[in-house]
Each structure stands twice: as C-alpha cells, then as structure tokens.
Amino acid sequence: KLFFSTAAESSDCIQPLRTQNSWMHLACWLVRCSLVYLIILVTESLSLSPDPDTFIYTNFMKSHCCYDAIPTSSKLVIFDTTLQVKKAFFALVANGVRAAPLWDSKLQCFVGMLTITDFINILHRYYKSPLVQIYELEEHKIETWREIYLQYSINRLISITPDSSLFEAIYSLLKNKIHRLPVIDPASGNVLHILTHKRILKFLHIFGSMIPKPRFLQKQINEVAIGTFKQIATVQESASVYDALTIFVERRVSALPVVNEQGKVVALYSRFDVINLAAQKNYNNLNMTMQEAIASRACCVEGVLKCYPYETLETIIDRIAKAEVHRLVLVDSDDVVRGIVSLSDLLQALVLTPAGIDALYS
C-alpha cells in the first residue's frame, strides 16, 4: 500500500502566548465553544429528522475515504490490451480474481476493465454466430474485442481517487451499474485497489461497532422491503447454459436462482461460475443443462444461502458479510423463490436513500 502524508502547518504561523494562564484560558474557551457548537448541531439534527438513526450509515460512509477500505494486502492483476483474450481469462481463473484493469501501452494509461461480464458477452454474441467460430476468438487480442464491444457500451474508465468518500464510491457503483471500481492515485496514475460492494459492506461490518446500532436493524426484511420481489430472474435446471447467459445479458443480473419444476430453488448460478467454462474449456458446449453445469463446477459449492421474510435486517447483513457473498435468495417455508436481497439493495437502502438519492433504480 502507498501511504499518504500531509505537510504539518508551520509553527511560525502561531505566535506563542506570553503566560501559562493565557494558554489555560484559551483552552477552556475553545472547549466551551466546541461543546456549544456540538449541542447546536445535535439539536438541529434531531429537529430536522424524526428518526436520528436514519443517517447513521450515510454519515459513516461520508466520514471515511476509499483508502480506509483498502486491505493491508490484496492481489491485483493488470493486463496489457495486446494480450490474447483467452490468456487473459485463463489468468483471471488462475489468480482467483474477477476483474483486471487494462493498460494501453500506446496511450500509457489505464483504459478500462476486463471482467467476467466481457467473457459472458463474448460467449453470448458469438456462440451461435454463423460468421465467426467461437474458437477463432481465442486468438483475438483484448484491444480487438474492445474495438467491437465499445460500439455498444460506455467508452471510458470509471474510477475513483483514494481520498474520495465511501459514500461517493457507493453512488458511483450503483449509478453506473458496475461491480468493480478502480481506486487510482491521481499523482502516480497507479491502481491501488479494486473496490467492490462486498468490500465496502465488510468494512462497515468490521468497524460498525464504533457507531451506534440503528434500531431499524431489528425490523424484519418484509417490513423494510429491501430487495427485489417482482419479476425475479430465475432459470430452470433443465434450461441450457446459453439460456442462462441470455438472461445475464438481457436482465443485467449477477446471479440466477436455479429452480426445479415446482419452483423450489436448488442452486445459485452466478456470473463467476461462467468463468469456470474457460478453465474447463467447456465454452464450446453451452447447450449443456444447468443441472450438468452445476454438477461439473470445479470447486465445491455449498447449498444456496437463503433468508426468510421473518428474519431481521441485522441477521441478513451479518449472514452476507460473514459468508462473503453478494446476495441471499429470499424464500418461503417451501423454499420457493420470493425475492433477492443483494449488496446493492442494502447499500442503496442504508446509505443513499436517507440522503435522498436513488442511484440503484434511476
């Protein structure tokens, strides 16, 4: 990690007082002024807001910068845009990361991100193409793919500085519908970290004990209505992997509950699972069923992490933070899918909504 320091103020700017009593009088006066000012602020805050708990998480995120949330040690993989697409995705799998900043050696700057979403878009666009065989894309360079893909997407790198607040980071993530936000040092141009929803919630979960616990955390999830409860994107276990990719592309969701004929959830298929197709070299066989794809996962995946309508918001946040997942599937007593509670939903409700900002649904 890089450490930033600020120059201390010059002692020449402060004229020494003549006696020790003067110092004591000044100190007492400053304390009294500070207390009065604090009382005024608290009084105004309570009079303006019927519930003082409302802004606890909003103010917490505004008072901490992105640098605070960067772990002491983390892995960062960077790709040159001249690297072959196939090698890039294999490198993501080998290093266990889900995205990498892209460096353009000609422009001498970072120009974008390579994510699992790119891999999904490549597979979905060319798998059934009569003009291009999917294996031909293996030889494409990242820059070649970007020239094609950027015709249909935003041609700019969305990033943030280390001293920007976590509130700004949350707004940028949700507003731009992205899951990875590079933290770039404006002085050196270096990428320090890739900030995610999960990292921000984990930071809040770790240091949340330092702030008062809001009373609304004891409310049940069906009371606060945080999550998606209508038009929930699911996929049948008899459907093909290509069908799942189509839903990922069209609905722009990060995971799909896999359901059986009775509508009961039997598994969860996420975007990250798609990258395993590259590791197993199965991307030429997207006609396999979801049941087959789940059974052939490279890593052992435990059962679906679920939550129930009667559980409290605090319980759900703890479960997501401890399991380090991006969402929980809300089910009824019969394990039928009734909703999805994601990190985006939680951050919108806890941090942005109290500030009058609707970045998630705007």
Automatic annotation (TrEMBL):
GO terms for biological process: fatty acid biosynthetic process. Residues 153-213, 228-286, 300-359 form the CBS domain. Keywords: CBS domain, Fatty acid biosynthesis, Fatty acid metabolism, Lipid biosynthesis, Lipid metabolism, Repeat. InterPro entries: AMPK_gamma/SDS23_families, CBS_dom, CBS_dom_sf. The keyword Lipid biosynthesis applies. Gene3D superfamilies: CBS-domain. The keyword Lipid metabolism applies. GO terms for cellular component: cytoplasm; nucleotide-activated protein kinase complex; nucleus. GO terms for molecular function: AMP binding; protein kinase binding; protein kinase regulator activity. PROSITE patterns: CBS. Belongs to the 5'-AMP-activated protein kinase gamma subunit family. AMPK is a heterotrimer of an alpha catalytic subunit (PRKAA1 or PRKAA2), a beta (PRKAB1 or PRKAB2) and a gamma non-catalytic subunits (PRKAG1, PRKAG2 or PRKAG3). Interacts with FNIP1 and FNIP2. This is Protein kinase, AMP-activated, gamma 3b non-catalytic subunit.
